[in-house]
């Protein structure tokens, strides 16, 4: 089970990109995303494109993934070169999932090694892998560090066993400080992910999780409000009355509490759901997305973006592999964004980050609404004096509504 894909236009079989990708290419960075669509078990709330044993029946896909990922990397090399784009070393790379650490560590190392051989890395490039706290051993982290990974992001979600159970997470809470400790000793930067608002979660339980995450002293913390995705097991349980979702007021209280505790502990917000121990520890990869830079997404269902052209791969690993074996693009469809859509996306992405949206990137109607948004306490009046739209704490709770106002 995973979400529907957008429809889009047919994608050329040879992966050819339109000439518009060349405009301003020298001023944009290139990042790499590698989607590894395998997990040990599927968590009840998750609708990411991932396959667990119950979906696949055996380990074939997990163990042959590397062959297809390497084939797509070579395909990307050819397409980017033939499109006339300048050679750009990678600004960042991010292995996400699914659970990247579910495939053999040697395979992750080979994929990164090949990406470096093809593209190179910018000096100080950030190279992250996501990991589930119970899918990684110390020696795996050592091998990843030696191969060039600089950062690991652990899916902690909660420190409270009852909440982990509702989320159907399989790890022991004690595994999180253990793996965070290993990563730090080895010299990897560490991020942890939390989810607020699991059914039945109290404010006290959430506080326990936030304080636990802070006590492990990661470099970076992401805290997402649980989204009940249609079609997931959790959505079905809620529909049957097995679980009751937390309401919006409770989610807002959880956000305010987490924000206060993170800031008091020295973690500054830099995107609505992300906090870092210093400016240097902000995720370069996520910032590349929010700054609308170029990235190539490798793997089943992965999305890519080059200067307003977006495409997404077929979701299932079997047709994905077949396309690559046929030396054909694995893209299911693509979209060349028109000016209005690019404008909307630019505002939506830039408004969510602390750096904010320069006022001169807003159209006149949006600019006219900014004094009112500042009066409502939703955007920062001081930043506005400096011609920047930056959300306040209240504004971060209502980010989507602020963006709607700015683009109406
Ligand atoms: C897709 S997971 C990949 C990492 C790894 N598999 C894990 O779960 O630990 C990345 C993050 O997305 C977040 N996430 C996934 N589904 C979510 C949902 N329905 N609502 C909010 N956050 C979600 C979780 O915090 C998770 O750590
Ligand atoms: S481990 Fe991560 S990717 Fe896999 S099902 Fe759970 S949340 Fe989704």
What does this protein look like?
Its main location: cytoplasm. Pfam families: Radical_SAM. GO terms for molecular function: 4 iron, 4 sulfur cluster binding; coproporphyrinogen oxidase activity; metal ion binding. Probably acts as a heme chaperone, transferring heme to an unknown acceptor. Binds one molecule of heme per monomer, possibly covalently. Binds 1 [4Fe-4S] cluster. The cluster is coordinated with 3 cysteines and an exchangeable S-adenosyl-L-methionine. The protein has helices at residues 53-56, 60-82, 105-119, 138-147, 161-167, 175-186, 203-215, 233-239, 248-264, 284-290, 317-325, 339-351, 364-375, 381-385, 393-397, 399-407, and strands spanning 30-36, 90-97, 121-131, 151-157, 189-196, 220-225, 268-271, 274-276, 294-298, 303-306, 309-313, 331-336, 357-358, 388-389. By secondary structure, the chain is of the alpha/beta class. The protein has two domains: 19-290, Aldolase class I (TIM Barrel), CATH 3.20.20.70; 339-408, no CATH class. The strands form three sheets. It has a nine-stranded mixed sheet, sandwiched between helices. Strands 10-11-12 form a three-stranded antiparallel sheet, with no helix packed on it. A hairpin with a 2-residue loop joins strand 7 and strand 8 (274-276). Helix 2 crosses helix 11 (317-325) and helix 13 packs across helix 16. The longest helix is centred in the first third of the chain and has 23 residues, at 60-82. Bound molecules: S-adenosylmethionine and iron/sulfur cluster (SF4). S-adenosylmethionine is lined by residues 39, 45-46, 48, 96-99, 130, 132, 155, 157, 193, 195, 224, 226-227, 229.
């Amino acid at each position: 089970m995973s979400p529907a894909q957008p429809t889009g236009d047919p994608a050329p079989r040879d992966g050819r990109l339109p000439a518009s990708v060349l405009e301003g290419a020298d001023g944009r960075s290139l990042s790499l995303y590698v989607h590894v669509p395998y997990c040990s078990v599927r968590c009840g709330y998750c609708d990411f494109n991932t396959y667990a044993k119950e979906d696949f029946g055996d380990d074939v896909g997990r163990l042959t993934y590397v062959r297809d990922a390497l084939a797509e990397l070579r395909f990307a090399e050819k397409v980017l070169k033939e499109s006339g784009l300048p050679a750009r070393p990678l600004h960042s790379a991010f292995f996400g999932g699914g659970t990247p650490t579910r495939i053999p560590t040697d395979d992750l190392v080979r994929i990164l090694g090949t990406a470096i051989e093809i593209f190179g890395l910018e000096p100080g490039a950030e190279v992250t892998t996501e990991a589930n706290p119970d899918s990684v051993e110390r020696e795996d982290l050592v091998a990843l560090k030696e191969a060039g990974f600089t950062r690991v992001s652990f899916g902690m979600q909660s420190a409270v066993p009852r909440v982990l159970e509702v989320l159907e997470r399989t790890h022991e809470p004690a595994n999180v400080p253990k793996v965070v400790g290993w990563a730090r000793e080895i010299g990897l930067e560490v991020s942890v992910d939390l989810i607020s608002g699991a059914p039945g979660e109290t404010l006290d339980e959430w506080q326990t999780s936030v304080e636990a995450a802070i006590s492990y002293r990661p470099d970076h913390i992401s805290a997402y409000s649980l989204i009940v995705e249609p079609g997931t097991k959790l959505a079905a349980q809620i529909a049957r009355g097995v679980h009751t979702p937390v309401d919006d007021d409770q989610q807002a209280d959880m956000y305010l509490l987490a924000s206060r505790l993170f800031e008091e502990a020295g973690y500054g917000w830099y995107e609505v759901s992300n906090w870092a121990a210093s400016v240097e520890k902000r995720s370069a990869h996520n910032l590349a997305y929010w700054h609308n830079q170029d990235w190539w997404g490798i793997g089943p269902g992965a999305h890519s973006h080059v200067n307003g052209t977006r495409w997404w791969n077929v979701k299932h690993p079997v047709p994905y592999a077949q396309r690559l074996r046929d030396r054909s693009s694995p893209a299911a469809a693509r979209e060349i964004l028109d000016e209005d859509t690019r404008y909307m996306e630019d505002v939506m992405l830039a408004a969510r980050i602390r750096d904010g949206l320069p006022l001169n990137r807003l159209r006149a109607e949006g600019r006219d609404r900014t004094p009112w948004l500042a009066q409502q306490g939703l955007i920062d009046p001081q930043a506005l004096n400096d011609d920047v739209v930056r959300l306040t704490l209240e504004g971060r709770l209502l980010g989507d509504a602020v963006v709607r106002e700015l683009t109406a």
